[in-house]
Amino acid sequence: MVRIVMHRAFASEIIKTTCIAVLSILLFMVLAYEAGAYNSAHLQKLSSTKTCTEYDLTGMSHAGSRMIKFDMSRSNASKSSYNGVDLSGAALIDTDCTGSAWLNTKLVHATLYGANFTKATMANVDFTGAILRDANFTGAAMMNTKFNGADLSGATWTDGARCREGSMGQCLE
Q1: Which of 25, 100, 112, 126 has a CA that sits 20 to 30 A from residue 8's CA?
Q2: From the centroid of its chain, how far is CA 118?
Q3: How many of the other CB atoms lie within 10 Å of CB of 3?
Q4: Contacts of 159 by beta carbon, 8 Å cutoff, 6+ apart
Q5: Do residues 78 and 99 touch, judged by C-beta distance below 8 A?
Q6: Phi, psi (deg, nearest 5) at residue 55
Q7: What is the pLDDT of residues 91-137, one digit of tens each?
């Protein structure tokens, strides 16, 4: 039989560190719940239906998420971060993405009717084949953003110009 003898001060330090970690996690969950960002019913709905319509996603980070074919329509995603997120085939119809950050994000064949990207920051974003009718990009900063085959009819471009009907892959004024 091997007997492990632990110094009381060391054992006390381990218990203290563990308690602090658990309390930190609980505090995070309470604060997130109060902010509307965490709710077990929401998480269950998200995982089973891929739907988070009309949610308040303000300021949330979705870094590295695979949200393929998710429905985020009519949600408030302002000031949120989408770094390395795959939203291919997703629906963001009438979603408010004001001031959001999009880096290395895929929105291939996504449906974004009326999405608001006012003052959003976009770098290496792929909108290939996306439907962006009536989307708003006023004041958005874009770098290496792809719109191959994307429908931009009626969209408001970064300079406030309106894209004419039939604008495919680029904003035609």
Answers
A1: 25
A2: 15
A3: 4
A4: none
A5: yes
A6: -95, 155
A7: 999 999 999 999 999 999 999 999 999 999 999 999 999 999 999 99
* pTM to 2 decimal places: 0.72
Which residue matches tokens 């995070």?
28
- Give the chain's length: 173
CA–CA dist 154, 159 (Å, integer): 14
- The Cα 84–Cα 74 span in angstroms is 22
Residues β-bridged to residue 76? 56, 96
CA distance 6 to 26: 29
List the one residue out of 113, 107, 111, 23 whose CA is nearest residue 71. 111
Nearest to 104 by CA among 120, 130, 123, 78: 123
User: Which residue, 101, 63, 70, 100, is CA-closest to 85?
Assistant: 63
Interatomic CA distance for residues 165 and 173, integer angstroms: 9
Task: Tell me if 115 sits within 8 A of 87, measured CB to CB.
Answer: no
- Residue 126 three-state SS: strand
pLDDT in tens, 25-50: 444 444 444 444 444 455 445 555 56
Can you give the C-alpha Rg of the chain in angstroms? 21
